[in-house]
Amino acid sequence: MLKNKVIVLGISGGIAAYKAADLASKLVQCGAVVKVVMTWEATQLVQPLTFQALTGNPVVTDMFEPAPLSAITHVSLADEADIIAIVPATANIISKMAAGIADDILTCTVLATKAPIVIAPAMHNNMYINPVTQDNISKLKARGFTVIPAAHGRLASGSIGYGRLPEITEIMGIIQQTLGKKGDLAGKRIVVTAGGTQEAIDPVRYITNNSSGKMGYAVAEAARDRGATVTLITTPTGLSPVAGVDVINIRSAQQMKEAVVKATVKTDALLMVAAVADYMPKTTAAQKIKKGAGGLTLELVKTPDILSEVKGKFIKVGFAAETQDLISNAQKKLTGKGLDIIVANDVSAKGSGFGSETNKVTILKKDGKPEDLPLMSKREVAEKILDNVSKLLKGKK
Ligand code: PMT
Q1: Quick one: average pLDDT of 180-199?
Q2: Which helix (H) or strand (E) holds 219?
Q3: How many CB atoms lie within 10 A of CB 114?
Q4: Average pLDDT of the residues in 144-166
Q5: Which of 96, 125, 133, 228 is the Cys-Cys partner for 223 at CB 3.0 to 4.6 Å?
Q6: Which residue segments constitute the domains of the chain, with CATH numbers given?
Q7: Is the CB of 276 within 6 Å of ligand 1?
Q8: Is the CB of 318 under 6 A from ligand 1?
Q9: Cα-to-chain-centroid distance, residue 309
Q10: CA 311/CA 113 separation, integer angstroms
């Protein structure tokens, strides 16, 4: 979580500097304390005042600006930073950092810090793919910097190529992941499923349900931010991809089963958040079914029950989406599917279940008392579930 984390946001002089304003704003909205350091070149592109207004903190642009008597600016910034994020990072600043040059406030701060450093290179394609830049990026990676690869697309010059600043949501995700590297799930592998499976009727139609993927994505993000290596197996959703996790895209229950079996060969926990169809059409028509005179009858057969069928010595967490007899139905699934935990999800309660930002759940455990949680954000629900997974993993050592 970003709340109260001190993020030193370094901005160097690339045209994508204007996008750093959005990043600063979003970080502040998440509760982070953002301290902006700009190179002289960056100040030629965006006014420091923009960042001061967005962060509520003075913006440092000059090595020799008067600082409080007790503080040497670059050293105090370097010390207080929980993380330094350089967005955008130009070829020039990357080269300077790789060579250990400290000739301005940003490079001095970088050299003086023990905090983790994330950089998001953004520049013209030819500069990005130039072996000098790539060598310097490799050097920084080898020294422990986290480098977010530049995205492909339209560049300021009008040409198409690698060099675009990645989406701000991706940069936020990587910052959160880097901050959480030493969390309670560090070194653990977690597999999460999300979304509603799609069972094809013909090439253009399918049977599905109302899952938006939000609950599963929240679990994947929370596990990532607690240090886990996460595999997210997801159906198509309208959500932004989760940065920093291994994403496997599938559609049907059968495909999800195959992906889960493969991903759980080496895992510490499986969290099946996805709403998996219980039935699928017996056959899928090869061509689009034409409208006839009468109705259409579909024969449905059972899908594989992934949670019951997947084998291995990892912690198994299921969700039970219920509209009645919540606890007794969930309890039956807990024992019937051989789970360690089941999250009983009242999908008929207001603000809970499919598509909502919040959820109302009771966590039932194979061993231990049920936890009836109030309505809370899906991220908060995810954290509560992971608290339990983390405890079980500690007990397994
Ligand atoms: O995606 P959102 O819009 O955020 O909504 C979240 C959610 C409501 C989908 C989620 O919180 C939830 O309740 N997920 C479980 C939905 C579900 O399929 O419940 P179930 O009671 O039918 O299945 C019980 C468990 O068995 C689930 O963990 C399910 O993933 C698993 N299952 C079900 C069928 C099947 N063939 N194989 C399975 O493994």
Answers
A1: 97
A2: helix 214-225
A3: 7
A4: 95
A5: 228
A6: 6-179 (3.40.50.1950), 189-395 (3.40.50.10300)
A7: yes
A8: yes
A9: 28
A10: 46
Cα–ligand 1 centroid distance for 321 (angstroms): 6
pLDDT, tens digit, for every residue of 66-96?
Answer: 666 556 777 889 999 999 999 999 999 999 9
The Å distance, Cα 44 to ligand 1 centre, comes to 52
Strands 229-234 and 189-194: parallel
Give the ligand 1 atom nearest the CA of 303.
36
CA nearest ligand 1 atom 34, residue: 276
- Answer whether 353 contacts ligand 1 (Cβ < 6 A): yes
For residue 396, the model assigns a pLDDT of 76
- Residue 147: its H or E element: strand 146-147
Minimum CA distance residue for ligand 1 atom 17: 275
Ligand 1 atom closest to 317 (CA): 28
Q: What is the pLDDT of residues 351-377, one digit of tens each?
A: 999 999 999 999 999 998 999 999 999
- Which residue numbers are catalytic? 209
Residue 119, helix vs strand vs coil: strand
Ligand 1 atom, smallest distance to 273 CA: 14
CB-ligand 1 contact for 303 (6 Å cutoff): yes
What would the DSSP string read from start to end of 259-327? Answer: HHHHHGGG-SEEEE-SB--SEEESS--SSPPPP-SS-----EEEPP-HHHH--SSSEEEEEEEESSSHH
User: What pLDDT is attached to residue 397?
Assistant: 64
Beta bridge pairs of residue 200: 206
CA 36 to CA 45: how far, in whole Å?
A: 15
Per-residue model confidence as pLDDT tens digits over 240-275:
999 999 999 999 999 999 999 999 999 999 999 999
In whole numbers, what is the pLDDT of the chain averaged over residues?
96
**286-298: pLDDT as tens digits:** 999 999 899 999 9
Cis peptide bond prior to 88, omega within 30° of 0: yes
358 lines ligand 1 (CB under 6 A): no
Tokens of 45: 């592109």
347 lines ligand 1 (CB under 6 A): yes
| 360 Cβ inside 6 Å of ligand 1 | no
pLDDT digits (tens, 9 = 90+) for 301-327: 999 999 999 999 999 999 999 999 999
> What's the pLDDT score for residue 1?
83
